[in-house]
Amino acid sequence: MKNKKKAYFGLPSKVIFCKKTLISNQFPSSTPEFKHNIRSKKETVYIDKNFISDPWKYSRLKKKIDFKKREKKLLRLLDKHRGKGEYDCLVPGSGGKDSCFAAHILKYKYGMNPLTVTWPPNMYTDYGFKNFKNWLKSGNFENISAKRDEGTMKLLTKLSIENLLHPFQTFILGQKAFAPKIAKKMNIPLVFYGENEAEHHNPISDNLRSLRDKSYHLYKNFSDLILGGVKVSELIRDYKVKIKNLKPFLPLNVSELDNFNLEVHYLGYYIKWVPQETFYYAAENCGFKPRPFRTEGTYSKYNSIDDKIDDLHYYTTYIKFGLGRATYDVSQELRNDHLNVDEGKKLIKKYDGEFPSHYFSELMKYYKIREGEFFKLCDRFRSPHLWKKINNNWKLRHTASNDGTDDH
After folding, report:
1. Which residue ranges form the domains of the chain, and what is each CATH number?
2. Could you report the per-residue pLDDT of 260-318, keeping only the tens digit for each?
3. Cα-to-chain-centroid distance, residue 306
4. How far apart, in whole angstroms, are the C-alpha atoms of residue 197 and residue 269?
5. Radius of gyration from C-alpha coordinates of the chain
6. N- or C-end of the chain: fewer Cβ atoms within 10 A?
7. Which CA distances in Å does 306 have to 30, 111, 227, 301, 343?
8. Residue closest to 102 by CA, chosen among 232, 281, 321
């Protein structure tokens, strides 16, 4: 019996791939907000003894959903909130295909008056910023964008890279905190996100829970929060960060929701949500344009393209979990029956783990991280149960194509 290799981040030591979606059980099923990057085994995607993952099972259940009935539920929800204030609902977004689709269809098909809110990217791409402006112009949407202290944003992102190899953590925290805060401030109790993030990675049961679960928007104890792998108290004491500059990254306190019945819903629960279709809709109705070149690490051009740090983020998931951006895209398209498994394997083999060179030097210079230091960080975060060094090159032990170093 072979000795088990040490698994970092609480990942399962045995790597198993879903035979339908090509995702593995190393995939994080949720992001623990305000904590470090350690995950327990139960927080990775579940794959059963027949090598079938929960995301695949849910994709089959989704085909049986009567979306006409779901739409009737949506209409009742909208009627409940329509005309109760200056704005009927709030839609977070930055002008990507999903926020374009959600805001536009709510306004022009369902007659709502949404307020759009934006937590800006770390560093806008030129085409991403154009999409943002086209979104607001095309739908005549009013928008509130966050004004944060960029020095604090820069520091927290750098710490997230150095401590967690998670370039996107700071953005995610601010993004999730911003919409409920504006909803509370503007007295708009109805918040709509697009596609349910739980649909892809969490257990099936997570998709069946109450849509009003607000847990990730709130906190109870300020001292327990960790940003960029550093306690808030240490950020204030050791890094001289002002509390007022940290607040934009922190969610509402539970007490702040007293007498405010915040409802958080996913539009993708009520109407059939197909990423390719939202792209076509956004292109036709909102002036959305795909990236002018193929996204490094995958084969697509229209997913997550507004932030220069996006590509680096997906590269770090490849380092930590052995799953890159092509795997994300392939898994999604397999669930939507737009690819077959053999095609998916070829795409993953060709593109997964491709280094994001386009913006890399610019990002390292901005965050004052030496390029050589970043590569050392990557090596430090490679889990021994996923990676093996051969002739001074790192190779995956296990792959979706069953051609890893330890697959034979």
Report:
1. 1-304 (3.40.50.620)
2. 888 989 999 999 999 999 999 999 999 999 999 999 999 999 999 999 999 999 999 99
3. 13
4. 11
5. 21
6. N
7. 23, 28, 23, 11, 28
8. 281
Q: How far apart are CA 172 and CA 232, in angstroms?
A: 17
Q: Does the model's pTM come out above 0.85?
A: yes
Give the confidence band of 28 by pLDDT, cuts at 50, 70, 90.
confident
140 Cβ contact partners less than 8 Å away, ≥ 6 residues apart? none
SS3 content of the chain, % helix, strand, coil (to 5): 45, 10, 40
Token readout for 369 is: 């991280």
- Strand partners for 265: 192
Only one residue has tokens 């997570």, namely 206
> Is-contact 321 27, C-beta < 8 A?
yes
Q: Are 90 and 115 in contact (CB under 8 A)?
A: yes
The answer to whether the beta carbons of residues 125 and 305 sit under 8 Å apart is yes
Measured between its terminal Cα atoms, the distance across the chain in Å is 15
- Sign, CA torsion 183/184/187/188: positive
SS3 212: coil
Instruction: Map residue 288 onto helix, strand or coil.
Output: coil
- The two beta strands, 393-396 and 387-390, are antiparallel
Q: Is the dihedral of CA 15, 16, 18, 19 positive or negative?
A: positive
State both tokens at 58. 């849910």
Residue 42: band (very low, low, confident or very high) from pLDDT cuts 50, 70, 90 = very low
Q: 3-state secondary structure string, 289-338?
A: CCCCCCCCCCCCCCCCCCECCHHHHHHHHHHHHCCCHHHHHHHHHHHCCC
Degrees to nearest 5, angle at CA 261 with 73 and 264? 50
- b/e string for 300-312 if b means 16 or more Cβ within 10 A? bebbbbbbbbbbb
Q: What one-letter code names the amino acid at 250?
A: L
Q: Which amino acid is at 379?
A: D
